[in-house]
Amino acid sequence: MIRLNRPDAPPVLSPVFVAEGVARFALDGSAVWNVDEIKRALSELSSGKCAYCEVRLGEGPAYLEVEHFYAKGHYPGRVLAWENLLPACRRCNAKKGDWDVAPAGQMMVDPTIMAPPIHIQLDEAYRPLGRTPVGEITILEIGLDDIDRLGVKRYKIGEAFKRKLEDLLDRYVSLPVNASLHRRRGVVRAVRDAVAKAGSDAPFSAVIATVMTRSPAYAALKAAMEAAGDWSAELRAADDIATAASLT
Ligand SMILES: [Zn+2]
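Above: the input record for the complex with zinc ion. Below: its predicted structure, written as tokens.
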């Protein structure tokens, strides 16, 4: 899970549209939130990923569902409140169900308001652990610790990225002093592409960011590139993003 910035509400959510939708939902339970403009705005909010588990929301079972942070069964007046809507995959949405976040001790992480690293960490085996009661409830109610659904994917992605960083370090430090500019740029570009995977638009970016900040190879690579003047402003910015998103 990563921190998401919520933009302004999409124009479709006018006061009239919202009032009519709330009334209709109260009347017959219609899915008044299933509107392309709303889904598109939510997809942009999360770069097309589930706000909870960070899977890419594409076709099939992982397609985007409109999640109500304050469950619609308990808070029917908020079914079209923009601040209450999150993009989620079908499995996270179904797992959370009608969990009520309002009573004491039941609050979960809303990634548009809270910084996930404050509440959740990933251990060395890619298992999410709660740092706070809010984090613990989030992991439990969303099923973020489901090994079959997420644990195996996290492990594969994390371990592959760890090896990638080791390989990049190898390639960078073994560049001969007289390496051609072309060859040098090739390695630097590969580092930049790898670091960008911790950016908010990549699937499982929190896992990548966590692996990156824990990796001795990455620390060595960064130090070597800084010393050689190859650590660009772009890499610095990407490094800052990863540090902020890391669940260490
Ligand atoms: Zn999900």
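Notes for the reader.
Strands lie at 65-68, 85-88, 120-122, 128-130.
The longest helix spans residues 147-173.
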